[in-house]
């Protein structure tokens, strides 16, 4: 619901309020947090009382008692009265860089605002969603900003995107245009960000805010392994289950900044958007520019409460297509089983053993095309290598289909190898800057997706592969960060647009593909989890979470990923032991118990397993098919997080509260350790629940006494399923 009254905008979700007001021509943010039933006269809420702040710009001419440092600004601009980190700056035709946006009107509509050409959260017919457009204008430059908010009442989330319009008769260059920027009137927060590296993505880091700017970012052209476009601000004493938590996420797959500026007056300016580094967007008269969408949520039920809001919104209103709602196939992937060393016979033997365990999809990974037998060459030449696959992809796929399995294929469509026919035919199709030798990454170059002919090449490659319908799944990989980011087309003025235009080009291709091939399941991947973001999730409902498939490492990676993203989005595979990334040996049961909560897959040659492990795999696949509905559509409670503990416990509960799954993992057994009693959450207190062996417990017993976790040995895991006993 959006209410405009007495110059104040009140955006209400079920449990939150977001309040802005117009004051002296400026748009101020007055409050974001737990829902307030009635907004008083805005004078009561204005942040202008208090001691005079010497040396700062005055709000009103002739009145030195009130300064702009007192104002909590929505969408601040550079160079005029607000001297903190801006959301927007532009260089105008006269060389100046000053903008002062003033309020110029608003519009409230039903339904969701959708940023054109960009992935975004959407509304369905019966959703209670309304949108607010606030128009801001700079009188001198004639630059305008439309702040577009959408309020998802039942989901407790607010989305926003900004449209910048050039209403003048001269071009100007946007140098910074963030998606979200507003001031919270308190700063005694901790901040959580998700940081890491290849094979250890999204490790939560938590630290108290200090004065100044603290931010995460990417300048790699992709989201990155290292930082993620997410952060949370939370009470210093907030934990998984209690305390106030704000969460911010950008639905975007390229360079970003996400951070906070804590000022000297206990105000925290939160911001998120496209990274301004090497972003210069020329806007001709009449043209407009739309920022990616940012999502903000608030919960007073701790970090877990915030995560549950993101999870539900993303799995129901960001992911789309047929696979949003149906169980996705259990897959087997040959990568860690064979790497580049395979042929048709080998792949078929892997598929046949997998079929015995009722695995449903055989995915052929890297190395099937051109002359590729290692990490160099042939990217871009998407023709089957007939030395390995004498019957081509089609021949292999038909044989896999004949086993009663679906067939899927690895692609790295955004790449070109220097040693490839594609590169020899079109040496200027890669991102590069004339006169500079492009730096290689994994021996490869990145295609220039800002060019239409390149995008058409990629689309037609997929049309050729997917047109006949024997491929049901694509693993879309992207294995390097970008360097020397320039385009051979567009001249000097276009170079500051390349990073973002690349991402728009990527989205255009993906949009084309998901519309044209609605029954193909796409899984995102980027050297593991370097592009795990909401942008990709709009096109691909699952993403390969990490190249690290070790069960213990995955507990940490999946935990960190789940801070913002749902388990239904996480590709999670069981691999061989000793594990290929950390050489740890864990039991098959634990490997399965860790993967089963995500999108289950296997990435090993099952033919090499002994009978006991093979039986274990069969049980896992069977259990997954029964339980995935709860893992993927239910609510997650992280009862014990792996960081700082020798164990982890997750609870998944179905929406009707009839099924509760408790997954517990001992990372390190500790002789003489006391038992932990872990209290379950969210059950029906008065209901009775029975576990797999038929023992019955009341909901209030499970929530107050709990279940026992014993540290008897390393790498022990358990999955307990409680079902409500019908009375
Ligand atoms: C990346 C992916 C892996 C695998 C290889 C193939 O590293 O993350 O899963 O597909 O590429 O080269």
Notable features of this structure?
about 725 residues, alpha+beta, Beta-galactosidase, Chain A, domain 5, TIM Barrel, Immunoglobulin-like, 10-stranded antiparallel sheet, 8-stranded parallel β-barrel, 14 helices, about 20% helix, binds alpha-D-galactopyranose
Distance between the termini: 39 Å
Strand content: 25-35%
Low-confidence stretches: none
CATH homology group of the largest domain: alpha-galactosidase from lactobacil brevis
Structural class: alpha+beta
Number of helices: 14
Radius of gyration: 27 Å
- Write down how many β-strands occur, each being a DSSP E stretch of 2 or more residues: 40
Bound molecules: alpha-D-galactopyranose
Biggest sheet, in brief? 10 strands, antiparallel
Looking at the structure, what is the overall shape?
globular
CATH topology of the largest domain: Beta-galactosidase, Chain A, domain 5
Mean pLDDT: 96
CATH class annotation of the largest domain? Mainly Beta
| Percent helix range | 10-25%
Indicate the CATH architecture of the largest domain.
Distorted Sandwich
> How many discrete domains?
3
Architecture overview:
- The protein has 727 residues and is of the alpha+beta class.
- The protein has 3 domains: 2-317, alpha-galactosidase from lactobacil brevis (Beta-galactosidase, Chain A, domain 5); 331-544, Aldolase class I (TIM Barrel), CATH 3.20.20; 647-724, Golgi alpha-mannosidase II (Immunoglobulin-like), CATH 2.60.40.1180.
- Helices cover 20% and strands 33% of the residues.
- The protein is built from 14 helices and 40 strands.
- The strands form 8 sheets. Strands 8, 9, 10, 11, 13, 14, 16, 17, 21 and 22 form a 10-stranded antiparallel sheet that branches.
- Helix 7 (452-466) runs parallel beside helix 9 and helix 12 (588-595) packs parallel to helix 13 (611-633).
- 53% of the residues are buried.
- The site of alpha-D-galactopyranose (GLA) has 11 residues, from loops.
């Amino acid at each position: 619901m959006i209410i405009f009254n007495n110059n104040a905008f009140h955006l209400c979700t079920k449990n939150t309020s977001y309040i802005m007001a117009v004051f002296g021509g400026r748009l101020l943010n007055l409050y974001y947090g737990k829902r307030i039933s009635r907004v008083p006269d805005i004078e009561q809420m204005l942040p202008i009382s208090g001691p005079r702040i010497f040396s700062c710009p005055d709000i009103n001419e002739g009145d030195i008692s009130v300064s702009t440092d007192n104002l909590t600004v929505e969408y601040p601009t550079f160079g005029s009265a607000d001297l903190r980190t801006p959301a927007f700056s532009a260089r105008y035709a006269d060389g100046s860089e000053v903008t002062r946006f003033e309020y110029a009107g608003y519009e409230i509509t039903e339904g969701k605002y959708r940023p054109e050409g960009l992935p975004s959260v959407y509304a369905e017919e019966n959703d209670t969603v309304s949108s607010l457009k606030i128009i801001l204008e700079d009188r001198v430059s004639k630059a305008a900003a439309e702040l577009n908010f959408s309020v998802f009442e039942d989901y407790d989330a607010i989305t926003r995107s900004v449209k910048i319009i050039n209403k003048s008769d001269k071009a100007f260059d946007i140098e910074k245009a963030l998606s979200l920027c507003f001031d919270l009137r308190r700063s005694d927060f901790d901040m959580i960000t998700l940081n890491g590296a290849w094979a250890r993505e999204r490790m939560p880091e938590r630290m108290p805010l200090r004065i100044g700017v603290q931010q995460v970012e990417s300048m790699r052209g992709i989201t990155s392994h290292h930082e993620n476009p997410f952060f949370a601000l939370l009470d210093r004493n907030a934990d998984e289950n209690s305390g106030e938590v704000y969460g911010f996420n950008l639905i975007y797959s390229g360079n970003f900044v996400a951070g906070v500026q804590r000022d000297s007056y206990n105000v925290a300016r939160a911001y998120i958007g496209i990274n301004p580094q090497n972003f210069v967007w020329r806007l001709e008269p009449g043209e407009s520019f739309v920022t990616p969408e940012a999502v903000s949520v608030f919960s007073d039920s701790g970090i877990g409460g915030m995560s549950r809001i993101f999870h539900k919104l993303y799995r129901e209103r960001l992911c789309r297509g047929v696979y949003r709602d149906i169980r996705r196939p259990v897959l087997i992937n040959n990568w860690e089983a064979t790497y580049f060393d395979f042929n048709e016979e080998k792949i078929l033997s892997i598929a046949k053993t997998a079929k015995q365990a009722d695995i449903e999809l055989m995915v052929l990974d890297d190395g099937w095309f051109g002359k590729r037998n290692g990490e160099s060459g042939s990217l871009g030449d998407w023709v089957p290598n007939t030395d390995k696959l004498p019957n081509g992809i089609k021949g292999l796929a038909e044989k896999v289909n004949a086993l009663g399995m679906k067939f899927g294929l690895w692609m790295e469509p955004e790449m070109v190898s220097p040693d490839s026919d594609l590169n020899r035919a079109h040496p200027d199709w890669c991102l590069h800057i004339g006169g500079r030798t492009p730096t290689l990454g994994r021996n490869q170059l990145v295609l220039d997706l800002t060019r239409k002919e390149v995008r058409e090449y990629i689309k037609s490659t997929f049309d050729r592969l997917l047109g006949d319908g024997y491929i049901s799944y694509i693993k879309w990989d992207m294995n390097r960060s970008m360097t020397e980011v320039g385009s051979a087309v567009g001249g000097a003025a276009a170079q500051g647009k390349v990073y973002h235009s690349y991402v728009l080009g990527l989205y255009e291709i993906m949009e084309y593909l998901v519309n044209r091939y609605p029954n193909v399941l796409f899984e995102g991947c980027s050297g593991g989890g370097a592009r795990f973001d909401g942008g990709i999730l709009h096109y691909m409902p699952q993403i390969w979470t990490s190249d690290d498939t070790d069960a213990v490492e995955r507990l940490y990676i999946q935990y960190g990923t789940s801070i913002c993203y749902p388990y239904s989005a996480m590709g999670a595979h069981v691999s061989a032991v000793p594990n290929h990334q950390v050489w740890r040996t864990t039991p098959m049961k634990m490997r399965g118990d860790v993967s089963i909560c995500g999108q289950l897959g296997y990435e090993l040659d099952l033919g090499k397993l002994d009978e006991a492990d093979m039986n274990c795999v069969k049980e896992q696949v069977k259990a997954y098919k029964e339980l995935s509905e709860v893992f993927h559509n239910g609510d997650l409670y992280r009862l014990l997080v792996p960081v700082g503990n020798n164990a982890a416990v997750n609870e998944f509960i179905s929406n009707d509260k009839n099924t509760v799954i408790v997954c517990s993992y001992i990372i390190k057994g500790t002789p003489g350790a006391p038992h932990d009693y872990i209290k379950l959450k969210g059950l029906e207190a008065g209901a009775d629940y029975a576990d797999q062996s038929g023992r019955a417990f009341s909901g209030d017993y499970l929530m107050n006494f709990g279940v026992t976790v014993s540290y008897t040995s390393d790498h022990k895991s358990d999955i307990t399923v409680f079902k409500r006993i019908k009375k």
